[in-house]
Amino acid sequence: DAGVTQSPTHLIKTRGQQVTLRCSPKSGHDTVSWYQQALGQGPQFIFQYYEEEERQRGNFPDRFSGHQFPNYSSELNVNALLLGDSALYLCASSLGAGNYEQYFGPGTRLTVT
Amino acid sequence: QKEVEQNSGPLSVPEGAIASLNCTYSDRGSQSFFWYRQYSGKSPELIMSIYSNGDKEDGRFTAQLNKASQYVSLLIRDSQPSDSATYLCAVNLDTGNQFYFGTGTSLTVIP
């Protein structure tokens, strides 16, 4: 049973650049949520995609955008990168939107210089 | 006021002891509660979910929920050095699909 996968594993970008992170959900799951985790902090909710639509958004600027494809995979795009965007970006998948168990992928470590 | 609060620790227990991890939340309408384990440099791993008041046991882990007190806890019996990790509490605040995480409690099990 394939778990949640994310790519790339690590990424180094320069301030002002744009980045795209990718996620494939666990087999059988249809919902993808994205989180940002700074060092020493808990994950912070960015947004959730279900049925190819953004269902809910956390307190993140619109520099953060996303997309879900018909095969349920998802992308997270961040424009105009800031030094403060350096973090571990986590994708979590679940079956259905709402109060369901979420399973995390290994994450993408983004460093902005 | 933070939505989910945990003591950051570190919490140290001897091998074989019971480790007790606590979490409080602010929204009385919260419906679902989760405990995740995160090893250093790794992503969170779901270990327990609980939806109703009372205790839920799974192997060496017991989750306890008290909605009246807005409190959820995780007990780890017969603690092992491999249990040394950061434990994250997550809560769905009944405002939709958003999960709020605490900052985590660092647990060290001493052999």
Short description:
The complex is a heterodimer of chains A (113) and B (111). By secondary structure, chain A is mainly β. Chain A contains no helices and 11 strands.
N to C succession of SSEs of chain B:
EEEEEEEEEEE
Average residue pLDDT of chain A: 95
The helical percent of chain A reads under 10%
Please bin the fraction of helical residues of chain B: under 10%
Per DSSP E runs of 2 or more residues, the count of β-strands of chain B stands at: 11
By helix and strand content of chain B, what is the structural category?
A: mainly beta
The pair of chains with the biggest contact is: A-B, 27 and 24 residues
Name the poorly predicted regions of chain A: none
Q: How many distinct beta strands of chain A? A: 11
> What percent strand of chain A?
over 45%
Largest sheet of chain A: 7 strands, mixed
- Sum up the overall morphology of chain A in one term: globular
Main pleated sheet of chain B: 6 strands, mixed
For the termini of chain A, the CA-CA separation is 37 Å
* Class based on secondary structure composition and strand pairing of chain A: mainly beta
Order of helices and strands of chain A: EEEEEEEEEEE
Q: Given the structure, what is the number of helices of chain A?
A: 0
Poorly predicted ranges of chain B: none
Model description:
The complex is a heterodimer of chains A (113) and B (111). By secondary structure, chain A is mainly β. Helix content of chain A is 0%, strand content 50%. In chain A, the strands form two sheets. In chain A, strands 2, 4, 5, 6, 9, 10 and 11 form a seven-stranded mixed sheet that branches. Chain A is globular. The mean pLDDT of chain A is 95. Chain B has 111 residues and is an all-beta fold. Chain B contains no helices and eleven strands. Chain B has strands spanning 4-6, 11-14, 19-25, 32-38, 45-50, 54-58, 61-66, 71-76, 85-92, 99-101, 105-110. The N and C termini of chain B lie far apart (37 Å).
